[in-house]
Request: fold
Amino acid sequence: MTENTNENKNLAEIKDLSVSFMTDAGSIKAVEDVNFTIPRKTVVGVVGESGSGKSVTARSIIKLLPETATTSGAVYLSKRDGSDSLDVLSLSGEQLRQVRGSEAAMVFQEPNSVLNPVYTIGWQIEEGLRAHGLKDKKALRAKAIDILKKVGIPDAETRVDYYPHQFSGGQKQRIVIAMALVLNPGLILADEPTTALDVTVQAEILDLLRLARDEFDASVLIITHNMGVIADIADQVVVMYRGHVVEQGTVEQVFYHPQDDYTKRLLGAVPRIGQKLVVRDREGKPIERKADWREQPVAVEAKGLTITYPGHLMQPDFKAVDGIDFTIHRSEVLGLVGESGSGKSTTGRAIAGLQKVSGGSLNVLGIEMNGVKERDFKPKRADIGFVFQDPGSSFNPLMTIAENVAEPLIVHRKYGSVAEAKDYVGDLLEMVQLPRAYMNRFPHELSGGQRQRASLARGLALKPSLLIADEPTSALDVSVQAKVLELFKRLQVEIGFACLFITHDLAVVDMLADRIMVMHKGKIVEHGDADQIMQRPEDPYTKKLLASLPVPDPREQQIHRAQLHELLAAEA
Amino acid sequence: MTESTATKVGVPGDERLNNLNVNKPTPWWEKIAIVRDLKIAVGWQKGMLVTGLVITVFFILLALFAPLIAPYGYAQMKDDSGVSFPTQSAPSAEHIWGTTVGGYDVFSRTIWGARTAIIAIVIAVVLSIFAGVLLGLVSGYFGGWVDRVLVVIADAIYSFPSLLLAILMAIMISGGQSGLWSGILASGISITVVYIPQYFRTIRAEVVRIKNSAYVESAKVVGASTWRIMTKHLLKNSTRTLPVILTLNSSEAILTLAGLGFLGFGIEPTAASEWGYDLNRSVADVTAGIWWTAVFPGLAIVLIVLGITLVGESLNDLADPRLRARKSAGEVVGSIEDTSVDPNEKPSARNEVIAELDSTLNPPATVTDHDPAIVASEWTGEDRTAANGDGKE
Reply:
């Protein structure tokens, strides 16, 4: 409280912050000696991988930590008017309650779990105002409507009485931000505010956070693992790694002149559009596929493929996939891109026989899937590999890695037991660049990236001619994702399986795919060679998707953002 | 811990760092559920668990060593010289807890009663757990009309008062009268009928939850049979909550057994000792001021139920991380790496991510270097079998 010089300049100052937690396995230090400042009216981006302590740091600013946490150091938070500055960590009870909401507010990752489904959004926005002493009902309502208008909810006067389920995901996040802004706090802590949202919605939410800085004069601390988001919105950047701050500076410094090795590598690992992934052998020569995929036979062919989910009482059936046509050749990688709910996963699951086909024709490796009997399809399953999105749940937690990876071998009677398959499983693990010794570990003893590679090993155990990868890297950190993608490309080039690569990330699909298919609301809106779609998109939806994807380069992103706004203006 | 000693930050001779339980192998006995729970429990949760365990173990020992502890048999009415025991005599040197109206020794009957109670628990639990788990697995995994029917039956059984059902079963099984085994079996089976729905419900809920998880789907993609999915993937993963229900049901089983005995549907005094029966016989005594015939069997019931319930409730709390109490972390010595529980994070190594990024600079052996045989299999021709063959190498 003595730093009078700093108080006027900086809204918050974090000094020597360390946080430890008590867990079942003993005490754990999560954050150590973190120092940084948040100036007024700036967006500070905290970037780091999962487990780097970025969320804990942000939560410490309003002391929103579990009982088992112990903190040391200090977090000085100035009042908005600059009149006073308090060490938040030394506050408790009523004082802390006063600070929360009115001086610093939090925006969480998942808007669905933040909004209470049984109250109207108006009531929930007013909740914060009531907690800070405003009682007049008319004034409360007026304020709620006003803030909803400001965050861009159309028709705010009537929709203030709506319940959360009546809004889309992006609108819900707008409402959560409105809840944070309504008390006019000096600092908004946004913990991965766009991670759960589609890329087109993400661009809107980032615009809204910029609005919070420019019109509400608030500072924003945004936590993210996405370098594109940082490049888009941040003025200052703090890079965290395993509980330490490894680098901080302005966004230009960090992106164009990174000092720390980790930052350099992190930036190097970020996928960018137009960056083709080339795998090299030990001599450094690029490895090429043995045959041109265009001349290869067709492995999967869909004609008018339709998949519907039956509706409940009186409601019409939901068409998840609506009459799509496509083909996958052998040794080709077909990228399937779309936002959540576009039907891309359903398509992948139908090819793997996990989802019934309701109409049209889907020919997988010579078998017609429309009306197929499991008995007829079962032998073909040996030829199809599947890699799931979440590495955390795709392995049976009670079986060792060897047992999990050997499962397809045993099911298809290639080996009698896990012990017999041991040598081959070891080879498979080495193929995905995991040590043989990992065989005897349990899934939770591997990191996310390692588990996803083991998952790839299981998918490839039977040497399938078709692999379906459903968002295989979207749950992984950037640097781990780079590694898994490289491995994937290497295996694909050398083994030559046909592949359907499902993802929502255009940059990732551009690195891998030969052809790209863009799905939107169950239909394919654009379909063509990867370069053509990325360079010269024709469909307006593809254009919007490409323009919404933030470029991990602050200067380029400024131009890119202007293009998006132009595009949206033209659309409206 | 060698890695961390190299970069130790503490004062020389400071043992605290080495006492951190990072990368220390856990002895086998710590892997047993209840021992592990004892270790992680703190505060009042630990108190509950220890109290419960002490009481439960005490009764198990009583049951095991009843012939050694009890001075007389459960049906004994005469001493060695053939003299009948006095009836309703107050506690004395020969009969430390007195005798009953029928002339039995209360102390001996109470001790022997523990044996009957424990046997009844074991039978009830063993019978209901297998049927309940199997039905839950089938019902949860297949769904459809099988599930509907089973759930409706389970609900119907729930809606009956459990004691009423138990009485019904006791009459059906043994005609209401019985010796030791038929009596215990009758009580055990009647309790079983009441508890199958509980196991069924819990297992079914777990199975429904995990049958859509990625590892079950992955087994389906691979083409694993239904039997394999059920036994390998669903069974083990759905039994997480069983210990809790098991203990809680055990205490309820005792109450049901005592209830049956009290109502006269239990075991004859000559066949085995049973606390509920003794309580029944002592009803008239209470008004006559004869307290010892009711207090001791009653106390035994209360204590054993209390003990088992305490164990069950604290296991329940400990199994749920949200209910589990923890110590405060205090000041933690050592760096982040020293205290990490992630086995991949060797103390002070800059970590896997960096190591992996480094390895991209010198690419590792390629797949085909390693095994030229690995290429995608043919799916059109008849050479599928040939491709299968080289899978074995």
In short: The mean pLDDT of chain B is 72. Residues 344-389 of chain B form one domain. Chain B has two domains: 53-319, 344-389.
